[in-house]
Amino acid sequence: QVQLVESGGGLVQPGGSLTLSCVTSESIFKFYVMAWLRQAPGKQRELVAHITRDGVINYADSVKGRFTISRDNAKNTIYLQMNSLKSEDTAVYFCDNGIRSGQGTQVTVSS
């Protein structure tokens, strides 16, 4: 089974930045879409951003203009650059290949 391992989470102040990484054990070209999802306490998991094999990108309205998803095919890695973080961005962030998700990485935005 393909493994997805997220990293880069942590505690950051409002207005700060973090970059999340997700490394897969197989070529990300195998998957049509790679995505970042998040789940806040007491809420359902939601799509943050996705990027297709063709490079088509989509963002949730709540993160447009602040987050950037990208991929490095040679490293089997996708990234999520998060700027201007808000308290409402606090959640566990998951990498997903359309079949399974990783274990997640905690992002906490707090002063």
Describe the 3D structure.
- Helix content is about 0%, strand content about 50%.
- It is mainly β.
- A hairpin with a 6-residue loop joins strand 4 and strand 5.
- The model has no long low-confidence stretch (mean pLDDT about 95).
Summarize the main sheet. Answer: 6 strands, mixed
Radius of gyration, CA atoms, in whole angstroms: 13 Å
Point out poorly predicted stretches. Answer: none
Label the overall shape: globular
- The strands making up the biggest β-sheet line up spatially as 2-10-9-4-5-6
Beta strand %: over 45%
| Class by alpha and beta content | mainly beta
SSE layout:
Elements: E1 4-7, E2 10-12, E3 18-24, E4 33-39, E5 46-52, E6 57-59, E7 67-72, E8 77-82, E9 91-96, E10 105-109
Parallel strand pairs: 2-10
Antiparallel strand pairs: 1-3, 3-8, 4-5, 4-9, 5-6, 7-8, 9-10
Keywords:
0% helix, mainly beta, 6-stranded mixed β-sheet, single chain, 10 strands, 49% strand, globular, 4-stranded antiparallel β-sheet, 111 residues
How would you concisely characterize the structure shown here?
This protein has no helices and 10 strands. It is mainly beta.
